[in-house]
UniProtKB/TrEMBL annotation:
It comes from the Bacteria. Residues 24-166 form the Nudix hydrolase domain. It comes from Fodinicurvata halophila. InterPro entries: Nudix_hydrolase, NUDIX_hydrolase-like_dom_sf, NUDIX_hydrolase_CS, NUDIX_hydrolase_dom, RppH. The gene is rppH. A motif (Nudix box) lies at residues 58-79. Its cofactor is Mn(2+); a divalent metal cation; Mg(2+). This is RNA pyrophosphohydrolase. One of its GO terms (molecular function) is hydrolase activity. Accelerates the degradation of transcripts by removing pyrophosphate from the 5'-end of triphosphorylated RNA, leading to a more labile monophosphorylated state that can stimulate subsequent ribonuclease cleavage. CDD domains: NUDIX_Ap4A_hydrolase_plant_like. The lineage of its organism: Bacteria, Pseudomonadati, Pseudomonadota, Alphaproteobacteria, Rhodospirillales. It holds the Pfam family NUDIX. SUPFAM superfamilies: Nudix. Its EC number is 3.6.1.-.
Amino acid sequence: MTSNSPYTPEPGFTLSPEEIEQLPYRPGVGVVLFNGDGQVFTAQRSDMVSDAWQMPQGGIDPDEDPKAAMFRELEEETGVVNAEILAESRHWLSYDLPHDLVPKMWRGRYRGQTQKWYALRFLGEEREIDIGGPHAEFSNWTWRPLSEVPQLIVPFKRALYDQVVAEFGHLEDLVRKGVA
């Protein structure tokens, strides 16, 4: 698993806005997992005090192919192995962390993430879904319309999630009708 866990820095460790702007983005992947009803998997983060939901996502290990990282992250976070790719985002999508979080995440090495997103069709049965595995990040999960998901995410990721909806929103009806 990639080192995507929050990190408590040394006391007093801070970065100026200028230093943060010079940091690279952490490469990552995201998954829009559609069920047969055209709804997407969303899960509630267990490490947040707020009611933060998201779709599966995570970092790409060194020398790892983005598709391989996507399937690895999907299995680690949800237990799902029965899924097929429907589409891939045309571009890498990025978000910046709030400046106060940069020193606390990923040892202060990244300003945010740039992610390749994939839309997948879930081919398994719901009993396959297991958010309590060895790399558990979620406390709860549900299926929702893709259009609702940006309002559930932490505010600093909303613009990225809006881009994901714009990119893959057309698949909702196609999946539901069985033509995608």
